Each structure stands twice: as C-alpha cells, then as structure tokens.
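B., you asked whether I could sanity-check this one before it goes into the benchmark set. Here's the sequence:
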Amino acid sequence: MSELDTAVDPDETVLGHTDEPTPLPVDDAVPDEPPRVRRTHLSLFVTDPQALAGWYVDVLGMEVTASTDGWVFLSFGVKHHDIALIKAPEGAVQGGLGLQHYGLEVDGDLDAWRRLYGRLIAKGVPVVKTTDHKIGFGIYFTDPDGNRFEFFHETVTDDEEGKRILRRYGAPSEPIDVEPLYAAEVQP
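And here's what the prediction gave me:
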C-alpha cells in the first residue's frame, strides 16, 4: 500500500476494482429530503472545444481554467468552472431532443443586463428572443454550435412570490422590445 492510500485513514480498507463497497445502513429516523443545490455547472458536447472556448472567452467574458485536447473548463470568475465543453463523439449531429437552454442569472441592475444584450449584438451573436417572464426578463441567444443560453435579470426576488406569479400566468414568456446599451469599445 502506498502512502497516498493510507493518508486519509490508516484503518481504511482500499477496495480492489471488483470489490463491492459496504452498503450504508438505512436509518428510518432520517427523513428523505431532496438535495439542496447551491450552484451548478453545465457540460456541453461540442464540435471543437478548443475553438469554441475562444467564443466563450470573447463573447461571455469567461476564463479558461483547465483544458486538454478533448475538453475545456470555463469560469465566470467565482468558481473553478461554470461551463465545460466536451468533444462530441464522431458523427454527432444537432438534434431536437436534449437541452433547450441554460439560464445565466445576471448580477447587477437592469442596465447591466441591457449592456450584455448590447455586447451580444455588437459581437454578432444570434439573439433568439427577448422576453418578459413576469418574474424577470430574458435574452435568449446561441453559441456557434447552436447551444441556447438565456441571460436572465430577475425582477421578483422573493421565491414564494415568484412561484405564485408563475402559477398565475402559466410560466409566461411574452415578447418584449429591449433597448440594448453599448460599451464604448463594443459598438456594433
């Protein structure tokens, strides 16, 4: 056994490749609660992770945090990775099933959201739609491989009120006209 194998617990048994782990005891006193997710990341199959990473850096302002020939991890700057780009298997094609979109909630005020809209337009990114969800506003756009994203600006921050509104309006998505704001360096 190596030093690494016993570094965590010297009494720990290291399992072989075919050994079954010891089952965890079932405790009826512990309630079956759903997981509480704090944050998440998205992993996408793409045609060329290295090339597409440049688009994410340029358009979304992300940072490459790790990569190999087959994958790239990207971060918005707070966590180690928010989006992973994975090389799709040979022959993979875009289809009608799978991820519909991935929502990215925008920090800041409505003008920060409108500046992101201006950035997308200035960089020639295909904008699918702008919409009012009654609990916030969304700008839907696609990356060069056709993956759809949404920049979301939340206007109702109380979750119970948000649920009440969504139930009342049936998950609304009404088209809206949005005036983009442009940074001086990214005019269209």
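One thing to flag: Residues 110-122 form the longest helix (13 residues). Otherwise nothing jumped out at me.
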